[in-house]
């Protein structure tokens, strides 16, 4: 079975969105994800909201390459968030580019308020044919799959999904059984990478590994095959694999895609065997 494989922004964070589309196409990806709002102050500040020249050029390259745009990122839901005031222009920009998914992080310890804001974001996104996807991360207020699932269930909105990142899933000691117990329609896409066997023991180390020191799919010890088998068989796969390797963005992208294809071949072969 074939399914779309997308290049995630964190894998080649030095590239702007237009450059990233070109890189993903040259590397052989089917799709791409784009970071329109930076995740840290250390990242370059680029004109990526609204009809800027960079955004228009990115749309042109998407059209020229034929790549799909899976997701745009990253929206943080905080206690101060006001959905339409803060995120309307972001959602409009994503719709102009042709995105279908929004990556959302939970940075609010009040999970009831977080669920309410997630639902309001889902309403706004639905107006533009996008969906909101909550990603559990160990350094946020939604630290694991169980907390994410509880918030999505509490939200109860049909336009909300749960985004599983392989590294965070593994570091939280989640299992394929945990995934299989959840509604399949919650999963709109999945992020994969690999990791070293030793799990970090501090939040700072988890954050550093997540942003800088992952491994390409198949190069570590995360049970990616088991994880993928527990998810819908046609779910798009985004390869989020920032690695400590001084190679070009194109070479890193090609290596990431090669690893992802090998892992997906194993997962899909196992699925055919079980069928």
What is the fold's blueprint, element by element?
Blueprint: E1 5-7, H1 17-27, E2 31-35, H2 53-65, E3 68-77, H3 83-97, E4 101-106, H4 111-126, E5 131-134, H5 145-155, E6 160-162, E7 164-165, H6 166-171, H7 176-180, E8 190-192, H8 203-212, H9 224-229, E9 237-239, H10 249-274
Parallel strand pairs: 1-2, 1-9, 2-3, 3-4, 4-5, 5-6, 7-8, 8-9
Helix pairs in contact: 1-2, 1-10, 3-4, 4-5
Taking all residues together, what is the mean pLDDT? 96
Give helix and strand order, one letter per element, not per position.
EHEHEHEHEHEEHHEHHEH
Helix content: 40-55%
Cα distance spanning the termini = 12 Å
* Helix count from the secondary structure assignment: 10
Strands in their spatial order, largest beta sheet: 6-5-4-3-2-1-9-8-7
Number of strands: 9
The CATH class is identified as Alpha Beta
Per CATH, the architecture is Alpha-Beta Barrel
CATH topology: TIM Barrel
Q: Give me the CATH superfamily.
A: Divalent-metal-dependent TIM barrel enzymes
Query: What portion of the residues fall into strands of 2 or more residues?
Result: 5-15%
Shape: globular
Structural class: alpha/beta
Question: Compute the gyration radius: what is it?
Answer: 17 Å
Low-confidence stretches: none
- Largest sheet, strands/sense/barrel: 9 strands, parallel
Our count of domains comes out at 1
């Amino acid at each position: 079975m074939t399914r779309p494989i997308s290049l995630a922004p964190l894998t080649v964070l030095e590239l702007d969105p237009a450059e990233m589309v070109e890189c993903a196409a040259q590397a052989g990806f089917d799709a791409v994800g784009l970071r329109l709002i930076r995740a840290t102050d250390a990242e370059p500040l680029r004109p990526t909201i609204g009809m800027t020249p960079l955004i228009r050029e990115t749309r042109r390259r998407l059209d020229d390459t034929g790549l799909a745009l899976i997701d745009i990122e990253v929206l943080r839901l905080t206690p101060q968030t006001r959905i339409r005031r803060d995120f309307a222009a972001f959602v409009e920009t994503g719709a102009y580019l042709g995105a279908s998914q929004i990556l959302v992080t939970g940075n609010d310890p009040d999970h009831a308020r977080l669920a309410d804001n997630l639902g309001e974001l889902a309403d706004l996104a639905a107006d533009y044919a996008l969906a909101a996807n909550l990603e559990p991360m160990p350094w946020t207020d939604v630290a694991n799959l169980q907390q994410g699932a509880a918030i999505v269930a509490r939200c109860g909105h049909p336009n909300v999904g749960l985004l599983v990142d392989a590294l965070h899933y593994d570091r939280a000691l989640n299992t394929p059984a945990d995934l299989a117990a959840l509604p399949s329609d919650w999963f709109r896409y999945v992020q994969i990478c690999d990791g070293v066997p030793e799990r970090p023991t501090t939040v700072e180390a988890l954050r550093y590994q997540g942003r800088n020191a992952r491994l390409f799919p198949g190069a570590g010890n995360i049970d990616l095959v088991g994880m993928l088998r527990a998810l819908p068989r046609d779910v798009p796969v985004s390869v989020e694999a920032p690695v400590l390797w001084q190679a070009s963005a194109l070479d890193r992208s090609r290596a990431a895609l090669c690893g992802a294809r090998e892992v997906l071949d194993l997962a899909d072969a196992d699925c055919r065997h079980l069928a």
